[in-house]
Amino acid sequence: MNAKEANSISIITYLDQIGIRPSKVKAGYCFYLSPYRDEKTPSFKVDTIKNLWVDFGDGNTGGTLIDLVLKLNPSYGIAEAIREISSVSGSSFSLQQPTISDVNTTRKEPSGITIIKTKPLGNNQAITDYINSRGISLETADNFCREIYYSIGDKRYFGLGNPNENGWAIWNKYWKGCTAQGVSHYINHAADLCLFEGIFDLMSYAEINRNKQCREDYMVLNSLANLKSALPEIQKYRIVNLFLDRDKAGIAATKTLTETLPTCRDQTECFSPYKDLNEFWIGREKMWVRR
Questions:
Q1: 74 CA to centre of own chain
Q2: pLDDT at 181
Q3: How many of the other CB atoms lie within 10 Å of CB of 29?
Q4: Does residue 27 or residue 290 have the better pLDDT?
Q5: Potential cystine with 116: which of 149, 175, 198, 212 (Cβ 3.0-4.6 Å)?
Q6: Is the model's pTM score more than 0.70?
Q7: What's the pLDDT score for residue 180?
Q8: Who has greater pLDDT, 33 or 104?
């Protein structure tokens, strides 16, 4: 990707892919809370026709998509900015209705978790090692996740984050939590949906099928507690393949869905006798190593 190609990518699409949604949508333009500084009134405008942005609250700073990526990542040069745009736009999926901003300024969430900043994967070796320990390649994880730097109280942490409709689900070797509950809906404009409990199950599915031509939408519940609110969206699909956990709660949810929605198909036998798809994928990898 060269600079011209990078700047041809829609700024609106790029912001959507990294989890930033507009506060106000009008014909020909959108307004956002500035993605790189704190403000309460949206003053960051994107012209959807000219594909340019301007931040009225920052001395009318503005420009192209590359200019925006450089503003979001002050340590980047143009080459790094183009790689970032290529990495983000390379995913064929869009995440439906994420509302958490991907910013480099502190933002405290209702959960008590304060998001300090996010980065593309590959900047933090400990996070990369954690991803790999779960049997997932950085290339696959990059389609769905970001590095999250956050604090709880006066202590700082980092982890792997996947955005949901209301915030971030965060994982590391020692802890998992979320800034706010919500589902993650990855849309590829397909007729069929694959439903998972956790992001590692989805990424395991992506690894298993990486050489196949699959056109499907994906939904990660992040918690079975979100299933009820996700049902209206689930019911829109022609077929829903269920990959929920094979524990008591997951089995019960699978049974309820298959009995009440004729479009649902129980696919958990494909990873039996393991509890979930990621455990199956890790177990398969270990089995090949032993051989």
A1: 23
A2: 87
A3: 18
A4: 27
A5: 149
A6: no
A7: 86
A8: 33
What is the predicted pLDDT for the residue at 131?
Answer: 96
Averaged pLDDT of the chain:
85
Q: From CA 2, how far away is CA 22, in angstroms rounded?
A: 27
Phi, psi of 11 (to 5 degrees): -60, -40
Measure Cα distances from 216 to 89, 193, 212, 277 in Å. 18, 6, 12, 17
Cα–Cα distance measured from residue 209 to residue 236, given in angstroms and rounded to the nearest whole number: 24
| Tokens read off for 267 | 């696919």
What type of residue sits at position 99? T
The arithmetic mean of pLDDT across residues 260-267, rounded, is 96
d(CA 218, CA 185): 6
DSSP letter for each residue of the chain:
--HHHHHHS-HHHHHHHTT---SEEETTEEEE--TTS--SS--EEEETTTTEEEEGGGTTEEE-HHHHHHHH-TT--HHHHHHHHHHHHT-S-EESS--S---SS-EE-TTSEEEEEEE-TTS-HHHHHHHHHTT--HHHHTTT-EEEEEEETTEEEEEEEEE-SSSEEEE-SS-EEESS---EEEE-S-SEEEEESSHHHHHHHHHHTTTS----EEEE-SSGGGHHHHHHHHTTSSEEEEE--SSHHHHHHHHHHHHH-TTEEE-GGGGTTSSSHHHHHHHHHHHHHH-
Q: Among 158, 198, 163, which residue's Cα sits nearest to residue 179?
A: 163
pLDDT in tens, 47-72: 887 889 999 999 888 999 999 999 99
Domains of the chain: 3-90 (3.90.580.10), 107-178 (no CATH), 184-290 (3.40.1360.10)
